[in-house]
Amino acid sequence: MAVQKDHWYNRALLILLSSLTVSVQQTDGVTTVKLEEGMVLVCVCPWEGNLTMVSWTKLIRFNKVPIAVYHPEYEVFISQSYQTRIQFLKTTPMDGSITITNVTQEDTGVYHCSVQTFPRGSWARDISVEEDDADQEETDIHIREPERSPGERSEFKHDQLN
């Protein structure tokens, strides 16, 4: 009789655990986007369901700072610094993607999108916004010292700075 009781307990535990995994947050890895005017940060939940909320945060000095929230009933909240620059695209029922306009270098960094759905729970994506390599190389050109031939002495006068 003890064998049947253990078997029933294990089966019930397995069913309980499998139902709990439905609400565990699933992520889709980190995506990289180049910093550019009108850039789109794509956040489309891959499954069907009812979208209950989309939230966007940006990682600033190890803190996730809220920048935008979309709720089908309460509409949109956008933080002050992004107020006129963020728009939710909502091209499909499970689309939480945003576009950012009037971009500056301050817009580089890691963004986190979280889509809350019913009945499957939440899905998230991290997006790293980086400067275009060509822009970075142009900046590096202005910072680097000129290359010298081996044995060539550097003659740099203080007057040359003015």
UniProtKB/TrEMBL annotation:
Domain of life: Eukaryota
One biological process term in Gene Ontology: positive regulation of immunoglobulin mediated immune response
UniProt xrefs under InterPro entries: CD226, Ig-like_dom, Ig-like_dom_sf, Ig-like_fold, Ig_V-set
Region (Disordered): 130-162
Signal peptide: 1-29
GO cellular component: adherens junction; external side of plasma membrane
Compositional bias per record (Basic and acidic residues), positions renumbered to this chain: 139-162
Coiled-coil stretches noted in the UniProt entry, renumbered to this chain: none
Key words, A-Z: Cell adhesion, Cell junction, Cell membrane, Disulfide bond, Glycoprotein, Membrane, Repeat, Signal, Transmembrane, Transmembrane helix
Domain Ig-like: 18-130
PANTHER family xref list: CD226 ANTIGEN (PTHR47011:SF1)
Similarity remark: Belongs to the nectin family.
Function text: Cell adhesion molecule that promotes cell-cell contacts and plays important roles in the development of the nervous system. Acts by forming homophilic or heterophilic trans-dimers.
Protein name: CD226 antigen-like
Organism: Salvelinus namaycush (Lake trout)
